[in-house]
Amino acid sequence: MKPGEAARPDEGELPGLSRAFFLEVEEALAARDLERITTVIENLHPADVAELLEALGPEDRRLLLELVGNNLEPATLSYLEESLRE
């Protein structure tokens, strides 16, 4: 793990999302595969998308928002921790 990089969450740290799901999102982000990312998260509840955003490291979070931010449900923001809403 690089300095400033978030540790990957353990399965127990993602109550609504499986570790496999989280890894799939990370792989899609690394490949900058917009179609795959969209397919993977399109049916998630806004609370689950917020949980995913909170679990990702800062760089992956930024990339996810750049790729699909305009397509996120507005309600997603209400589920985010206050420190991440900014």
Model description:
The chain is mainly alpha-helical and 86 residues long. The protein has one domain (16-85). The protein contains six helices and no strands. Helix 1 runs antiparallel to helix 2. The protein starts with 18 loop residues before the first helix and ends with a helix. Residues 1-7 and 9-13 have low confidence and may be disordered.
Features:
86 residues; mainly alpha; globular
Low-confidence stretches: 1-7, 9-13
Oligomeric state as shown: single chain
Query: What is the CA-based Rg, rounded?
Result: 12 Å
Question: Which percent band covers the strand fraction?
Answer: under 5%
End-to-end separation in angstroms reads 25 Å
Largest sheet: none
Query: Structural class, from helix and strand content?
Result: mainly alpha
Q: Please estimate the helix content.
A: 55-70%
Identify the overall geometry: globular
Annotation, overall tally of beta strands: 0
Number of domains: 1
What does the average pLDDT come to? Answer: 82
What count of helical segments does DSSP give?
6
In summary, what is this structure?
The chain has about 90 residues and is mostly helical. The protein is built from six helices and no strands. The longest helix is centred in the N-terminal third of the chain and has 12 residues, at about 20-30.
Task: Describe the SSE topology.
Blueprint: H1 19-30, H2 34-41, H3 46-55, H4 58-68, H5 75-79, H6 82-85
Helix pairs in contact: 1-2
